[in-house]
């Protein structure tokens, strides 16, 4: 790890101003991902701006749903009674993430910004288009067991590693951003992460001088009846092989609205909009869920070692829907 300077910001303007003046600097809250990458020399920043004193906390019920401050810790959000009761998929996704120690440190904003666990990205002995654009993507023909089957390109097939982001995407979350001029904008989380295309080094729509302020989630019947399923190699402290966040509003045995997003199968948290539309008006049965799951993986492009994900994620989807429809 290279030497770096360290400063503390107490307001959003101080934080974004420091970032604007030095675009190679980085914000730090929990640091659970950032410091790992700096130790690996994957990222090097001449300055870290500590934003823990910026007033971006709070978990509150609003007139139209839920608001989570960007500096709330994952553990606090996952255990919050409002989140547990009204948005269970978010709580489940958070509490299935990482370890208790990491959840106690990691912030919501930082979690949305975490970078891929692709081994080629994290090992500087290998070329990687995310680290060094134009250098190549050895994952295409190398060890791609944990990588994406949806949304990839010739430049990159790295998966987005998040759990919480999958649940948030499924439940129509919106990210509130603020820049160095104090101007705020709202971005649907569905659009926050970018597909790799030919520029895999750019992973989100966040501008250099912008900071995540909060996340909002609208209240809905399908949010109250939501669930997150995570399939992994071991029962704890492991990233997902596949995951599914689902929500259902069922009345009289028929589905009025449905939500479905998948994790660890896409280069970004993957919303299955076509599958959701297909479920509306259908009976809440295994046959309906199987059909939706098959639609959700249309267009998948698996590589040699991750073909199993096509079948595995469909089973996770069906299981998640069945558990909330029972």
Automatic annotation (TrEMBL):
Residue spans crossing the bilayer: none
Lineage: Bacteria, Pseudomonadati, Bacteroidota, Cytophagia, Cytophagales
One protein family per Pfam: CO_deh_flav_C
Keywords: FAD, Flavoprotein
Domain FAD-binding PCMH-type, first and last residues per copy: 1-222
The keyword Flavoprotein is annotated on this UniProt entry: yes
Entries under SUPFAM superfamilies matching the protein: CO dehydrogenase flavoprotein C-terminal domain-like, FAD-binding/transporter-associated domain-like
Protein name, as recorded: Xanthine dehydrogenase family protein subunit M
Superkingdom, taxonomy of origin: Bacteria
UniProt xrefs under InterPro entries: CO_DH_flav_C (IPR005107), CO_DH_flav_C_dom_sf (IPR036683), Diverse_Substr_Oxidored (IPR051312), FAD-bd_PCMH (IPR016166), FAD-bd_PCMH-like_sf (IPR036318), FAD-bd_PCMH_sub1 (IPR016167), FAD-bd_PCMH_sub2 (IPR016169), Mopterin_DH_FAD-bd (IPR002346)
GO molecular function, one term: oxidoreductase activity
Native organism: Hymenobacter telluris
Cross-referenced Gene3D superfamilies: 3.30.465.10, CO dehydrogenase flavoprotein, C-terminal domain, Uridine Diphospho-n-acetylenolpyruvylglucosamine Reductase, domain 2
Keyword Transcription recorded: no
């Amino acid at each position: 790890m290279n030497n770096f300077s360290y400063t503390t910001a107490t307001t959003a303007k101080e934080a974004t101003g420091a970032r604007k003046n030095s675009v190679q600097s980085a914000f730090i809250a929990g640091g659970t991902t950032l410091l790992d990458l700096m130790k690996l020399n994957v990222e090097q920043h001449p300055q870290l701006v500590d934003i823990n004193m910026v007033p971006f906390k709070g978990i509150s019920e609003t007139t139209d749903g839920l608001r989570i401050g960007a500096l709330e810790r994952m553990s606090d959000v996952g255990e919050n009674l409002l989140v547990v009761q009204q948005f269970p998929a978010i709580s489940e996704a958070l509490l299935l993430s990482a370890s208790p120690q990491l959840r106690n440190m990691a912030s919501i904003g930082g979690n949305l910004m975490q970078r891929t666990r692709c081994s080629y990205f994290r090992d500087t002995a290998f070329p990687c288009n995310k680290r060094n654009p134009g250098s190549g993507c050895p994952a295409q023909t190398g060890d791609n067991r944990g990588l994406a089957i949806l949304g990839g390109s010739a430049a990159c097939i790295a998966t987005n590693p998040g759990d919480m982001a999958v649940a948030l995407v499924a439940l129509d979350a919106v990210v509130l951003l603020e820049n160095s001029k104090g101007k705020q904008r709202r971005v649907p989380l569905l659009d926050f992460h970018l597909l790799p295309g030919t520029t895999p080094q750019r992973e989100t729509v966040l501008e250099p001088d912008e900071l995540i302020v909060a996340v909002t989630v609208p209240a809905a019947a399908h949010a109250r009846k939501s669930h997150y399923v995570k399939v992994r190699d071991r029962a704890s402290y492991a990233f997902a092989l596949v995951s599914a966040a689902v929500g259902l509003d069922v009345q009289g045995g028929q589905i009025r609205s449905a939500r479905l997003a998948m994790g660890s199968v896409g280069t970004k948290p993957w919303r299955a909009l076509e599958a959701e539309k297909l479920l509306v008006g259908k009976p809440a049965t295994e046959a309906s869920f199987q059909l939706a799951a098959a639609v959700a993986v249309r267009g998948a492009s698996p590589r040699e070692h991750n073909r199993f994900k096509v079948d595995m994620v469909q089973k996770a989807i069906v299981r998640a829907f069945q558990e909330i429809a029972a």
